[in-house]
Design a protein that fits this description.
Layout (H helix, E strand, L loop, with lengths): L1 E9 L1 H13 L3 E8 L3 H19 L5 E5 L4 H7 L2 H4 L3 E5 L13 H4 L5 H12 L2 E4 L2 H15 L9 H7 L2 E3 L12 H5 L17 H8 L1
Parallel strand pairs: 1-2, 1-3, 3-4, 4-5, 5-6
Helix pairs in contact: 2-3
């Protein structure tokens, strides 16, 4: 299978995922990406640049796989007939319905902007398949969707959430831990405790270390 792998925010864990899938997949994967900065602008405008990248490649694909940091509905709407009917899959690293916002973000003082969460929702609606990196992530996203829709005055189309449930699956991340092992460690009975997140507010390292203590 020939897969176009689309990542609008290529840095950190997103970039590691992009490179890991490209390197280890049994399929023929061609990556398309944008630098991992200005996340709000990537969610608004990344689809425009990435649709151009795909069109300019001139390559044929059997599947388009993109992540949650892009407006998939806008992306599909910009594609020519050559690419428009290719099945699309959406992979959620995180989502803007349940992801904790930084207390330093100016939008917090303005009681948040639901638009980014709605981009995630509309992207999931137009995707042919939707994947999450954990059961917890999938369940929390689907549970929060009715709460999001209740923010709007009418025509909420809440039945769409039930339709969405049917195409949502969990697809855990592949992780290469070989560099953390040595011949001595493989034989040791002492467990290795790994903190595999950024040391920032959204990962809550304080609670992790309180638990260790």
């Amino acid at each position: 299978m020939k897969i176009a792998l689309i990542e609008a925010f290529s840095t950190g864990s997103h970039r590691a995922w992009l490179e890991g899938v490209t390197k280890h997949s049994c399929h023929q994967v061609t990556p398309f990406s944008l630098p991992g900065r200005f996340w709000k602008w990537r969610m608004h405008g990344g689809a425009i640049s990435l649709a151009d990248q795909l069109e300019q490649s001139g390559l044929d694909f059997d599947l388009i796989l993109c992540t949650d940091m892009m407006d998939l509905a806008l992306f599909k709407g910009l594609l020519s007939a050559r690419y428009r009917d290719i099945p699309t899959a959406l992979y959620f690293h995180e989502n803007q319905l349940t992801y904790p916002w930084s207390p330093d973000d100016a939008d917090v003082a303005e009681k948040r902007d639901h638009h980014y969460a709605f981009i995630n929702y509309s992207s999931a609606l137009v995707a042919d398949g939707v994947f999450f990196n954990s059961d917890f992530h999938r369940q929390s996203f689907l549970e929060e969707l009715p709460v999001l829709l209740k923010q709007f005055p009418d025509f909420r189309e809440e039945r769409k959430v039930l339709e969405l449930v049917k195409k949502c699956q969990t697809l855990t991340l592949g992780t290469d831990l070989s560099k953390f092992l040595s011949p001595l460690e493989e034989k040791s009975q002492v467990p290795t405790i790994l903190w595999n997140h950024r040391w920032e507010y959204d990962k809550n390292p304080e609670e992790f270390f309180e638990l260790l203590e």
